[in-house]
Each structure stands twice: as structure tokens, then as C-alpha cells.
Amino acid sequence: MDIELRGVSRRFRMGDTYVHALSDVDLIVKGGEMVSVIGPSGSGKTTLLNIIGTLDRPTSGRVIIGGEDITDLSESRSSKLRLMQFGFIFQQFYLLPTLTAFQNVYLPIRESRGPGGSGREKAMELLETVGLSHRSRHLPSQLSGGEQQRVAIARAMANDPPIILADEPTGELDSQNSNVIMDTLTDLNRDNGKTVMIVTHDQGIARRSHRIVRMKDGRILH
User: Fold this and answer.
1) What is the end-to-end Cα distance of the chain in Å, rounded?
2) Contacts with 15 (C-beta within 8 Å, 6 or more apart), sequence order
3) Hey, which of 125, 152, 175, 222 has its CA 20 to 30 A from 199?
4) How far is CA 187 from CA 34, 112, 126, in A?
């Protein structure tokens, strides 16, 4: 599924001044492409990802996902879009601490299917895909950082979204676990045709993508 940004800007008010997190950004990511976004802290990388995933709205410009202009969707439609079209992976994992690995993965499946829906087998299949079916009953506190991120990837894939948005997915991990996570994301892109966007500071991680987008001061350099 294609992603297109047309003249997207985002500014935040801080006291009497405005901070321009994004400034007139144009970007096209083709469906099935794997793209890394790199740049110094404060360059607008996370804001870019949040706007694509409807977690934030642009101050100006248009956001087109799969040919549909999603810029002005209502919050209810945006929420449904996030549930079905995007898989989110964050640096801090954001697993629910009181739920097991299985329950964390199953939750978005249950939300999408509504009353009477099942999906339990799918949740277990996803955990098996990331090599953690044997840890399905463990709480996040009983898992290593690498295992928690693999559960987060399984959760991101719960509703088979066409787009994966990963914000520093290896930022809390050692090099060995980072490679495991990147192998998993690469497999999802290559074998399942997922469009993958990764925000990272790691040049080694970025070089595993098809293309690198460099940002500075809210703008795309090239």
C-alpha cells in the first residue's frame, strides 16, 4: 500500500513561539517498499511517522494512504484505520504489563472482530512466527527486551496490516537482538509484501532498507 505526503507541515506552539516539527514535506513510499528514516534528534522523524499513522495531524498539507486522502478523517475513522491498516512498533514496546504475551497479541484481533469473534489460533500462530509460542503465558516482565519486541511485532501483525511503522524498534536492544528484530521486519517485507517504515539512529539498521530518507530540521534532505 502506497504512502504519499504532499506539502505536509506540523507546528507546535510553545509559549509565545512555534516549533516547526515538519516543514513542507513531500514523500512517496511505494507499496512493498522498506524505507528507513534517519536524522538527528528533533529532526522530525517521529512526527513524520505519527502523521502517517494518524497518531497526529498535520498543520497543513495532505496525507494519502493507498490512494485515499486521510488528512481530515474523524477520530473514529482514524481509530479504525489504525487498527486495520497500520502495525505500530515502538522503542519502549508498550506491552500491557498485566497481560500475557498471548493476550497482548490477541487483544487487537478481538477488538477488530467484535463480539463473538475468535482469532485465538491466529494469535498463537503469530507468536510461533516470531519464535515465542513457548512463552505465550509469560507476562512482559518475565520476558527479555528482545522477546518483548518480538511480541510487539506479533501484535503489530495481529490484523494483517499492509503497513508497518517502527519507531526506533531496536533502540533498547543489544546488537544480537537488534539483528533478530531486523531479520523479522525484513522477512515481513520480503515474504509478506508489507510496506515498512523504520525510524532509526543506527546507520547499520538503515542500510538494510531499500532506501534511506534523511531528515534535518523538519525537512527531508534527500
Assistant:
1) 22
2) none
3) 125
4) 11, 25, 13
Exposure of 198 in the CB half-sphere (CA atoms within 13 A): 32
Angle made by CA atoms 199, 203, 209, in degrees to the nearest 5: 65
Per-position pLDDT tens, the chain of length 222: 899 999 999 998 888 888 899 999 999 999 999 999 999 998 999 999 999 999 999 999 999 999 999 999 999 999 999 999 999 999 999 999 999 999 999 999 988 876 555 789 999 999 999 999 999 999 999 999 999 999 999 999 999 999 999 999 999 899 999 999 999 999 999 999 999 999 998 899 999 999 999 999 999 997
For the entire predicted model, the pTM comes to: 0.92
Nearest to 94 by CA among 51, 37, 151: 151
Coil, strand or helix at 164: strand
The domain segmentation of the chain, as residue ranges, is: 3-220
Degrees (nearest 5) of the Cα angle 178, 182, 184? 120
Collect all residues with Cβ–Cβ distance below 8 Å to 59 and sequence separation of at least 6.
Answer: 9, 10, 11
Under a CB-based contact definition with an 8 Å cutoff, are residues 218 and 21 in contact? yes
CB of 170 closer than 8 Å to CB of 202: yes
CATH class of residue range 3-220: alpha beta
Beta bridge partners, 14, equal: 17
Q: How many whole angstroms separate alpha carbon 214 and alpha carbon 79?
A: 29
